[in-house]
Amino acid sequence: MAVYLTTRCRGGVYAPILIRAAQILLNKKGLKNSELSLLLVEDEEMTEINAKWLSRPYTTNVISFPQQSPPIKDNEPLGDIVICIDTARREAHQAGQNLYQRLEALLVHGFAHLLGEDHELGEKEALRMKAVEDELLDILRKEKVMADLCVNVDHVATIRQARLGKEPDPIYAAVLVELAGADGVVVHLREDRRHIQDRDLRLLREIVKTRLTMEMAATQEMLKIACDVKPDIVTLVPERRQELTTEGGLDVVRFEKEIADAVKRLNDSGIPVSIFIDPDSSQIEAAARTKAQCIEIHTGRYAEAQTEEEEDKEFDLIVECAKLARDLGLRVHAGHGLDYRNTPRLVPVAEIEEFSIGHSIVSRAIFVGMEQAVKEMLKIIKGC
Ligand code: PXP
Q: Do 133 and 157 belong together in one domain?
């Protein structure tokens, strides 16, 4: 089995992991002895390739050049897949995905074409290709246990607000979180501004280079701020003034219309939306009806379980709900109360693409430093 990858673009950092994904696909499809060539290019070269081979003088996300037609045989070259990293980056941004997740989806699309699928032939063929892509993505999801870690820095601001001063600054924390290798920074702009301030959100929008998640209540004030600041993704959460922290998931069943309106308004501004909900199938089904892109499963009950039995029950519920959400086309995040002890059990849950963790990391950072605290959690989630 040989996968040849050529990168003629920035973003070569994704090469090893794309090669591994391609090798897994070849292996699982019984093509151990086939050759596959991958080429990663930028917009300019993709435009040239499109113009030269497909008579369309513009850039696209992925092109496949099959070297076989079905039935596909092992031992013979399978073909070439060209992926445009610039287009992938734009599409990832629009979908609130990280670049790797988008590249993986494009690899799968290209691979399905090489297997002889073609969505452009008609409705029936498009449905069949979609099923093949889902199957291939599932294969990769099961093999790979590399969710993202997004770090919530609210509590750095909580300490600052204790003296209403300037330190510690959550902006510094965000820089260290990124330097440590996390995939994103999360802040919750609360109505009472008890920790994160408007200034923090706006500065973070300027400096965060990975992914900025804004947690917020679906109020008119917050919707206006989000549409103005444009975080990479919004997570809608319930909010009560008296609570110490977010105490439960959003009741989407009850407020479906209001939440769907908020999702639409944010999506219309180009912002993908995640909804923070309890692991409850009726809430997940309602979340899917709002047309949100993601859910974040509230892991609070799992994290606070007092007995092994209780933890097992909550864990099973999270797994079941994560699967249901994926089946309904929702991406799955998880968060609340996760720490260095209870996160490892959730890591192999293939459907969870992102962990949102704050309190435990900031607490540990007080003693070992922010970079070290983030790196220790990254080791748990990514194994490296
Ligand atoms: N996800 C959501 C939606 C939250 O509201 C919070 C808390 O701000 C978290 C994740 C992080 O929880 P913790 O601070 O307990 O890690």
A: no
Residues 68 and 153 in one domain: no
Look up the domain containing 109 and give its range: 2-143
How many domains are contained in the chain?
2
Split at pLDDT 50, 70, 90, the class of 148 is very high
| Domain harbouring 48, CATH code | 3.40.390.30
Task: Look up 351 and say whether it is catalytic.
Answer: no
Which residue, judged by its Cα, is nearest atom 12 of ligand 1? 336
Tell me the pTM. Answer: 0.71
Question: Cα angle vertex 58, ends 54, 60, to 5°?
Answer: 80
Ligand 1 centroid, distance to 261 Cα (angstroms): 24
| Protein residue with least CA distance to atom 3, ligand 1 | 276
287/316 same-domain check? yes
Across 243-369, the runs of DSSP E, i.e. the strands, are 273-277, 294-298, 331-335, 352-357
Domain boundary, last residue among 88, 109, 143: 143
The pLDDT tens digits for 101-136 are 888 899 999 999 999 999 999 999 999 999 999 999
With b for 16 or more beta-carbon neighbours within 10 A and e for fewer, the 264-300 pattern comes to ebbbeeebbbbbbbbbbeebbebbbebebbbbbbbbb
Q: Name all residues whose Cβ lies below 6 A of ligand 1.
A: 152, 154, 188, 215, 235, 237, 245-246, 276, 296, 335-338, 356-360
Q: What is the mean pLDDT of residues 304-333?
A: 93
> Which of 246, 299, 364, 380, when mutated, tests ligand 1's pocket best, judged by the most ligand atoms within 8 Å of its CB?
246
Maximal CA-CA distance, the chain: 70
- 51 & 85 share domain: yes
Q: Check pLDDT > 60 for residue 219.
A: yes
Q: Residue 241 — very low, low, confident or very high, per pLDDT cuts 50/70/90?
A: low
Residues 78 and 128 in one domain: yes
